[in-house]
Amino acid sequence: MSHYAPDAKYQELAPGGIIPQAGNAEEYSTGAWRLQKPVRRDEDCIDCMFCWVYCPDNACWTKDQSVKGLQFDYDHCKGCAICAQVCPKKCIDMVPEDQES
């Protein structure tokens, strides 16, 4: 049996989703099929970190856990645009993937 499938029958499992190895997508690139990517306008950013809070793929990160210097991890960003939608200053633009940042 796969190491992802438990050895229990479905009746014995808790209702709802089961994520046996949360975060295992960290090991490989998942953003290759993205059509648009987020680009932040630094001069308009107020460092609220809403993009970091709401990103479902943990693709917004900072160096040394400081608020300044937010970056996007394009290897894991899927282009969902949630970061751009929640930004109160609208300083994150979604640009075509083939466009330079």
How would you describe this structure to a colleague?
The protein contains 2 helices and 4 strands. By secondary structure, it is mostly beta strands. The chain has a domain of 66 residues: Alpha-Beta Plaits (2-Layer Sandwich). A two-stranded antiparallel ribbon has the order 1-4. Strands 2-3 form a two-stranded antiparallel ribbon.
Question: How would you sum up this structure in a few lines?
Answer:
It contains two helices and four strands, in the order E-H-E-E-H-E. With 101 residues, the protein is mainly beta.
Distance between the termini: 45 Å
> What's the CATH architecture of the domain at 31-96?
2-Layer Sandwich
The strand line-up of the biggest sheet is 1-4
In total, the number of strands is 4
Low-confidence stretches: none
Largest sheet: 2 strands, antiparallel
